[in-house]
Design brief:
This protein is α+β, with helices and mostly antiparallel strands. 43% of the residues lie in helices and 25% in strands. The protein is built from seven helices and six strands; from the N terminus they run H-H-H-E-E-H-H-E-H-E-H-E-E. A six-stranded mixed sheet has the order 1-2-3-4-6-5, with helices on both faces. Helix 3 runs antiparallel to helix 4. The longest helix is centred in the N-terminal third of the chain and has 19 residues, at 21-39. It is globular.
Length: 185
């Protein structure tokens, strides 16, 4: 599902440029599978099911869980490269290094992924996951951070009180860094 949700994402297209959409989909699906398996015990994956199928997924990292430990990152790279090859690896590393530099220094929740099955987009599923994220952030008194390279996502995140705190072209793709400050309960 995440592969389909991100197949045409500007960063996915920049990292896996020149690949046909069906090949990009296969590589993204493998990469997301490895990432979710690694993060399921250290982060907060959220999923919405409709009719017994996953319709939307968010991957939220609690304070201190991102970036992943170096050894874990290396294991993930080995798993992904052994399944997909090295094409795009340097560009993916460039992307990851750029977003890691933008993370705020204080404890925060990091929304690494939010994907909705393409046929179900616009039906409030992403909003449901964002509501769960912001409710938890408010309950725990934490700020939230995310990045997006898809300008269509900006109004959605702004609707949950995220504000753009930075912008950078990464791999020639405009990328917005957004933050939601903690709220006092």
């Amino acid at each position: 599902m995440l592969g389909r949700a991100f197949r045409d994402d500007p960063i996915a297209c920049a990292v896996l440029k020149d690949l046909a959409p069906h090949i990009r989909l296969k590589r993204l699906t493998i990469g997301f599978s490895v990432t979710l398996r690694t993060c399921v015990n250290r982060s907060w994956p959220l999923a919405l099911n409709l009719d017994g199928r996953i319709a939307a997924v968010a991957l939220i990292h609690p304070p201190g869980a991102y970036p992943l430990p170096w050894a874990t990152q290396l294991r993930n790279v080995i798993r992904i490269v052994s399944a997909t090859g090295v094409y795009g690896l340097g560009r993916w590393r460039t992307w990851l290094q750029a977003i890691e530099r933008q993370h705020p220094p204080e404890p925060h929740l990091y929304l690494e992924l939010l994907g909705v099955e393409p046929a179900l987009q616009g039906r409030g599923l992403g909003s449901s996951l964002l509501a769960a994220l912001t409710e938890r952030a408010d309950r725990e008194g934490l700020a939230c951070f995310l990045e997006t390279a898809n300008p269509r996502n900006l109004p959605l995140y702004r609707g949950f009180d995220f504000e753009v705190v930075g912008e950078e072209a990464i791999l020639d793709v405009p990328t917005w860094f957004m933050r939601r400050d903690r709220t006092a309960l």
